[in-house]
Each structure stands twice: as C-alpha cells, then as structure tokens.
C-alpha cells in the first residue's frame, strides 16, 4: 500500500504537472535556526528526489490524502490539489530531520494542513490549492493568524521551539 | 462577499450549555491508535465562498445540528449516522465553547433538517485556522467514525 502511495506521490510530482497554474505566494522559512530555505516557494515546489525513496517521510504522511476525492467530508470539500501536495511534500522532507512529525490533513479548500501541537507552541501551516501559505502560531496565550510572509518571524520562532522538542 | 458577522446574528436563545453536533469522518478526526479522540482542525473550516449560491446561504459558516432541536424532532446522533452513512461519526461541543472561539451560532432549519444550524465567525471573512483548531480542541466524540 505504501509503495502505491509513494508511486502516486512520485507520479504527481513529475514535470508534466504544473503544480500552480495560477500565481501563489510562498515564502522562506527559517528551519530550526539553522538555515533559511525557500521550502514553501511554489516556484520550487517539485518533490525532492530523495522523498521518492523515503518510506516514512512525506509519502507516507501524505498518502492518505491522495485517496480523497471531491466532497471527501460530505460537506463539499475539494480534493487536495497536486500543487499543494507537492509543496507540502517538499516542506515535510525539508523538515524531516528537524521537527516532530506533524498531523497532516486535507483542508476543505483543496489544500494541505500541517499541524504541530505542544504545551508551549501550536503551529499550523496551510498550503492552499494554488500555493498560498497561511500560518497560525500560538505561544502561551498569544495567538496569531495570517499569511506566512507576514508571520515569518513568529513561525521561525515556533519552529525553533518545536525542533528542540524533537 | 458578505461578512458572516454582518449577515448572521448570534442567537442568544441558544444557551451556552446547548450541545452542538458536527459530522466527521476519519480524515478529519484525531485518533490515538484506533481510538477516535476528537475532531481535527479541518472538521471546522468554513465552506468556500464559491459554494454560497448553491448552498443558498448568504455567508460562509460550518453546518451543525442543535441537540435540543434534534430531541424535539425525535432524532439522535446515532440517527444522524444512520442517515449519513457508516463512515461518519459525530462530535459535540457546547455553544459556549464555540462562542469562546469567536463564533456565533444561528438556527438555520432546512425542510428535512429542522435541527440544522450554523457556526459562523463574528469578525472577519472566515474562520482562522486558530479558531477552527479551538473548535476542534473543544470537541468530544459522541459516535466514533471507523479508523482509517
């Protein structure tokens, strides 16, 4: 089953698919305070080659989402777009050795949600169907929601805290 | 696009201890092993603006069932699952928990769903993921969906 999922992720990421036919807006993220990577840049959203060999990485986390058709929730949700899946896979592979494994779920708008939860920090990154990335960050009683580019310092800080928990 | 808080009004006749039900499936339910724990964030995201005309509602919201209205109609969470299908489960939260997350609750009965209501965001265009997460976090499982 995992092999099937991974092959679907791989097939999904091949060059014949334009992941973001319309414009999207990604951004750079400081991962664990180690490097700045443009991992959520839709223009660079092709799945990294190493993920296709990774049995417990992005492929297995995103695999269940590949089975979702339109109206998967019974309330009219869209199936995750190939572009959102590809970009989420790229981020998951980039973060694989740095962050705890997130909860991964489809958004109702055809995107992908990556969610980390701890007593100190909550972080939600939602990759929209066209590549726009929104973020939710909670540290203690302070919570912020907005586009990733607007919240990048808070996201980077949250990622640093989460990395220390790994 | 109309803002939910401008077209819906929080119904103060719905008390804070009113139970609100939401249908879930495994893909929007948090599991601990095979045990369903609560809803996930994506179970409480607003519908898309593009669907409003088809839905016949003036602004985005999340569809729910009001427990007291279900009792009046002789229905139950188990009956909801019978109607929706075996892959569904039911979570509940209180109206007060929804209000604590910046939401209002409105009765929106349908011809075949007298207990139907909606949770809508009081400020802004739609729920933030922080608000959806807060709603999910306050939910409890009433009827567990089957494990994935």
Outline the fold blueprint:
The complex is a heterodimer of chains A (166) and B (148).
Chain A lengths: L1 H11 L16 E3 L3 E3 L20 H9 L15 H14 L7 E4 L5 E6 L3 E7 L5 E7 L2 E6 H18 L1
Helix pairs in contact in A: 1-2, 2-3
Chain B lengths: L3 H4 L11 E6 L4 E4 L2 E5 L12 H4 L6 E5 H6 L4 H8 L4 E6 H6 L2 E5 L8 E6 L7 H9 L2 E4 L5
Antiparallel strand pairs in B: 1-4, 1-5, 2-3, 4-7, 5-8, 6-7
Molecular structure report:
The complex is a heterodimer of chains A (166) and B (148). In chain A, helix 2 (58-66) packs antiparallel against helix 3 (82-95). Helix content of chain A is 31%, strand content 22%. Residues 1-28, 32-38 and 42-56 of chain A have low confidence and may be disordered. With 166 residues, chain A is α+β, with helices and mostly antiparallel strands. Chain A has four helices and seven strands; from the N terminus they run H-E-E-H-H-E-E-E-E-E-H. Chain B is built from six helices and eight strands. A six-stranded antiparallel sheet of chain B has the order 6-7-4-1-5-8, sandwiched between helices. A two-stranded antiparallel ribbon of chain B has the order 2-3. The mean pLDDT of chain B is 96. Chains A and B meet through strand 3, strand 5, strand 6 and strand 7 of A and helix 6 of B.
